[in-house]
Design brief:
InterPro entries: AAA_lid_6. It holds the Pfam family AAA_lid_6. This is CbbX AAA lid domain-containing protein. By secondary structure, the protein is mainly α. It has two domains: about 30 residues, no CATH class; about 80 residues, Helicase, Ruva Protein, domain 3, CATH 1.10.8. The longest helix is centred in the C-terminal third of the chain and has 23 residues. The chain is elongated. The protein starts with 5 loop residues before the first helix and ends with a strand.
C-alpha cells in the first residue's frame, strides 16, 4: 500500500511502469469529514490508554474546531495524521492543566476533558 496526494502518486506510477504493475489498481479515497476524524481520535485515545470525557465527545465546539482545522489543513495533515496530532495536543494540554491544578491522579491524567 502506498499513500499520498493523488496527482503526485499518479505521476509516479506513470513514470515507473514496473511500480504500477507491482501495486496494481490505484484506489482514490475521499478525505475524512469532522465526524470521522473524531471517531479516529476516540479510537487512538483508547489505544493509548486515554479516555475522552463525554463532554468532549459530544461537544459541538470540538466538532467545529475539527471541521475548521480540516478546511485549513494541507493534504499531508488531514485524516489520521490530524487525529494523531489532535490527541498529542490534547494530552499536552491535559498534562499541563492537571499539573497546574495539583490534581495529579491516574484518572485525571488519562481523561481528556477539553
Amino acid at each position: 500500500v502506498v499513500t499520498g496526494d493523488a496527482p503526485l502518486m499518479l505521476a509516479v506510477l506513470r513514470a515507473c511502469p514496473t511500480l504500477r504493475q507491482l501495486l496494481g489498481t490505484p484506489i482514490e479515497l475521499p478525505d475524512l469529514n469532522a465526524s470521522e476524524v473524531t471517531e479516529l481520535l476516540e479510537a487512538f485515545s483508547k489505544k493509548r490508554g486515554f479516555q475522552l470525557a463525554p463532554a468532549v465527545q459530544e461537544s459541538a465546539a470540538v466538532q467545529k474546531h475539527i471541521a475548521s482545522t480540516l478546511q485549513r489543513a494541507d493534504r499531508e495533515h488531514k485524516n489520521a495524521h490530524m487525529a494523531t496530532q489532535l490527541l498529542e495536543d490534547a494530552v499536552v494540554r491535559q498534562t499541563e492543566r492537571v499539573h497546574a491544578l495539583g490534581t495529579v491522579t491516574k484518572a485525571s491524567l488519562l481523561t481528556i476533558i477539553e
